[in-house]
């Protein structure tokens, strides 16, 4: 999960959405008009792959205005032809490169234990196709929902991975600011094993309503636990029984206008909905 994709939507009142251009608000005005915050975290896509082809604003730091190429052989750039990024990313990625910490180290530094900045981004690839696919990007037509959200709300074009490795440690950083020393998808994430304070606990302590809607343990992939279930507080407080619900409940609550103040969504992982290969981008 080296490249996390986060989509956050603030559902504002009609008065804000209809405000004329040039209208200014103080921070207090905006805070009072935010009704719901919805956070959806998808999987395994870099900014350049997922948003590098967005064209609605030329200031986006993507790939449309760059000739981004890599040598097929980083140790001898003159030996083989370059591989260049283009709008050719497949709806279903043909490969799922190793994204453990050691795998990422090997791909970037050509060693499992880097001690110097020696970059070899395509060390593990065996032929031209997966090497090229790794740096290709999607067109706006392939990511229409994301393009619409980015164009009408806010797009951040600087993405970083807290842990250059797998899913759950990075999700722990998102929801608590630390992985508490975990660098793998180990069993602690399956048994409410993290002891640090999470955003879910902080919300409850401040009387802010929240739900963690999830499709991660109910879909075909039967993948990871919902993120709120990482933390021991969630179990000891009873929030695991009251604040974690299936994704179908999110659709029902959204339709009924009964979403909590803070909604956190875990998609299924990793076969059809999460962007993690082999999930199709068009279904994410």
From TrEMBL:
It comes from the Eukaryota. GO terms for biological process: phospholipid catabolic process. Transmembrane segments: none annotated. It holds the Pfam family Phosphoesterase. Keywords: Hydrolase, Signal. GO terms for molecular function: phosphoric ester hydrolase activity. Residues 1-18 form the signal peptide. This is Non-specific phospholipase C6. It comes from Lachnellula suecica. The lineage of its organism: Eukaryota, Fungi, Dikarya, Ascomycota, Pezizomycotina. The gene is NPC6.
């Amino acid at each position: 999960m080296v490249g996390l994709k986060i989509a956050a939507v603030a559902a504002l009142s009609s008065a804000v959405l209809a405000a004329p251009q040039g209208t200014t608000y103080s921070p207090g005005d905006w805070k009072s008009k935010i009704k719901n915050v919805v956070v959806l975290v998808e999987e395994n896509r870099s900014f350049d792959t997922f948003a590098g082809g967005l064209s609605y604003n030329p200031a986006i730091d993507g790939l449309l205005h760059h000739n981004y190429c890599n040598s097929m052989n980083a140790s001898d750039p003159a030996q083989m032809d370059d591989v260049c990024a283009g709008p050719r990313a497949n709806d279903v990625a043909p490969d799922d490169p190793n994204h453990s910490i050691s795998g990422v180290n090997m791909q970037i530094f050509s060693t499992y234990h880097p001690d110097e900045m020696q970059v070899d981004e395509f060390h593990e690839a065996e032929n031209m196709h997966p090497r090229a696919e790794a740096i290709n990007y999607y067109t706006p037509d392939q990511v229409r929902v994301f393009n619409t959200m980015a164009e009408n709300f806010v797009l951040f074009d600087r993405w970083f991975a807290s842990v250059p490795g797998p899913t759950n440690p990075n999700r722990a950083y998102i929801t608590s600011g630390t992985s508490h020393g975990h660098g793998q998808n180990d069993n602690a994430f399956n048994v409410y094993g993290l002891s640090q304070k999470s955003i879910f606990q902080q919300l409850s302590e401040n009387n802010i309503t929240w739900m963690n809607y999830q499709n991660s343990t109910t879909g075909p992939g039967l993948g990871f636990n919902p993120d709120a279930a990482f933390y021991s507080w969630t179990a000891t407080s009873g929030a695991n029984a009251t604040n974690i619900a299936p994704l179908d409940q999110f659709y029902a609550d959204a339709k009924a206008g009964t979403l909590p103040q803070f909604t956190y969504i875990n998609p299924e992982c990793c076969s059809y909905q999460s962007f993690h290969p082999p999930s199709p981008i068009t279904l994410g």
